[in-house]
Known about the structure:
Helices cover 40% and strands 30% of the residues. The protein is α+β, with helices and mostly antiparallel strands. A hairpin with a 4-residue loop joins strand 6 (74-80) and strand 7 (85-89).
Amino acid sequence: MGNQCSNSKRAKGLFRDAKYHKVVKMGKRRVKDGECCAIWDSAGRVRNVVGPKREWIWFSDVRFLDRFVANQNQYLVISFRDGRKQHMRGPASFFLDPVLHKCIKVEQAISLNAFEAIVVYREGGAVGRDGEAADDGDESKEADDVGGGGLKKAAAATVQAATSQNEAALPVARAITCLPADGKRVQRRVVRGPTLFIPAANEWVHTFSWHGSNNKMDDERTMIKDALRLTKIRTLPDQLYYNVKACRTSDDAQLCVKLMVFFQMLDLETMLDSTHDPIGDFVNATSADVIRFTSQMTFEDFVTRSAELNDLATFPVLRERAAAIGYKIDKVVFRGYKASDQLQSMHDQAIKMRTKLQLEAKTAEQQQSIEDLKLSRQLERGAKEREMETARRSHALELRKLEHAETMRQAEEEERAHHTKQAASDKQKLGFLAQLGEKGVDLTQYLCAKERRNDKVISIEQGGGMVPHLHLGT
């Protein structure tokens, strides 16, 4: 009894191990909620017990089943022992029945953004007389075979509903049907985002294998076949870097031309029908155009005309091939070139010498410009000084004119005042003399006497014939 209890505890602790298998002669087993176990009786018949439940066991084998859970972004891949396979969309949970199932895997759903798309192939049933797929009739049968009882039927219904919902919800751009020799129909469809895609059991997602970059430095970057493997295709405008090596000019100079190609997908169906590697087509077409361009000119001509590599007209093969596979070339950008070491060294020396001469010429030109600037500034300064001197002298003359005019005006006023005063004085004198004349005064003697003032008057009157002799002392 103690050994049986120990075995029971061990079974309870290891119920999640799919390899655990215990032979029990007699006893009971407790299956908890969320657990499931398979019990084989002595005749080899199996039954599944879903918890919560307590089961009495008599000479039976007990095995607890592993439980697989998928969330809303996942799905379950159920592989049957008879070779069939089913997909169950999450959120869902399922027990691995060792009698029916080989394995169960939890896979992530394919998330597509608005600018992404995938190519899905689907294999249908046999082709009937009218060319349509015959009804397989095994969907419900497979669902019934998932497990026994209500658990099996419910799981099968979940699988069928998830598959139908997945097929109805996804956008299909165009379906192409291929009829192989075995009579099975294969359809191709394009699923565009935004969506969360879960493939059905009879569907598979196409994997593209294109040329890809080796992710090295710019001078060593090149394209390698099948280096880019992807399932999602971006429909947005994109670009690629490519170095066209071994380009020879007409004078046998070897160059490496660096380009950036901007392109945009216009028709995904045309791309699928026309090419298996559009990047490889771009690489080959670009190489053809660049080699043709460089082979028609010398190295010096290439250096002079390298700007033409920015023009789409220089890449006719690239544009034609892009249009044939459903793409459009927006523009090509020339990122430079690299020559051989010896040629590059010679070219670098020539560039240094040419740059030195140009710098010296520019230096001399700048010096002459500085001298011309100094001379022009001196001439301008002399002209301004002359203008200032002329203005100063004109101002001085104006000031003198104003001063002279003011002096003349004051002199005229003084003279006018003097005449006025003199006239008044004369008038007064005339009046006074008139009064004296009226009073009998001899005006002549008066005026003479007045004019003499303090002078000495000597009067000589001649008489008797004698001549006087006069001495005046100083």
